[in-house]
Amino acid sequence: MAVSPRASSDRRFPDERTAALGALIEPIAASHGLYLEELQLKPSGADTVLRVVVDYETGTEQVDLDTIAELSQGVSEALDKDDPLPDVDSYELEVSTPGATRPLTEPRHFRRNMGRLLEIERAGEPVLTARLKEVDDDGVTVAEIKPAPKKGMVPKTGPDTHIPYASITRARVQVEFSHTEE
Asked: Where does the Ribosome maturation factor RimP N-terminal domain start and stop, copy by copy (predicted)?
């Protein structure tokens, strides 16, 4: 399954045009308690798609649909009022969250996913499936989840291991259908 990259804070706005849109949209997102993760402005046939991706900056709560709808309405009104895209005849506004399987690229992304199961890739190491236990300024502490030897058996949990951010080449949340705390 291909997973689109998640912009790090220095790449949220890839060009001057999206940076200008970001300056307009960021305060609206903040007024809803949200962080503007990234903006994308892409042609799509005769139209242009403006994709606004938001999330809470802290905590583990998920953004609900009512908040997305309110933000979408606020952004739409601001775009209609300020017309920051005078060279675009029509556009489609998409407001969403990053999604469950998008890569984690910043410490705050890891903090937002405390307790979740992650797939972590490190240079020269096998892929690690682990439960996220702690996040600090230098890296993450995880407990490896070793597959059950036979179907129906409980997977084994390894000892807590600290992994520096610098050694992580890719990390993403693994979607679980059920999980009980140990």
From this structure: 24-100
Q: How many domains does the chain have?
A: 2
Gap between the Cα atoms of 36 and 13, Å rounded: 10
Residue 22 pLDDT: 93
Helices (H) and strands (E) counted in the chain, each on its own, are 3, 8
Alpha helix positions (H), the chain: 16-31, 65-82, 107-111
Region of residue 152 (phi > 0: left; psi between -120 and 50: alpha; otherwise: beta): left
Short-list 21, 40, 12, CA closest to 106 = 12
Give me the sheet containing 35-44, strands edge to edge.
35-44, 47-55, 91-96
Instruction: Note the pTM of the prediction, 2 decimals.
Output: 0.74
What is the pairing mode between strands 91-96 and 47-55?
A: parallel
Boundaries of domain holding 126: 107-173
Q: Can you say whether the dihedral through the CA atoms of 115, 118, 122, 124 is positive or negative?
A: positive
Query: What are the mean pLDDT values of the chain's consecutive 10-residue runs (182 residues total)?
Result: 44 83 95 94 85 90 94 94 78 89 90 94 94 96 89 88 96 78 50
Residues 130 and 90 in one domain: no
Helix, strand and coil content of the chain, in percent to the nearest 5, comes to 25, 35, 40
Q: How many residues does the chain have?
A: 182
Count of C-beta atoms within a 10 Å radius of residue 180: 4
Query: H or E stretch including 147?
Result: none
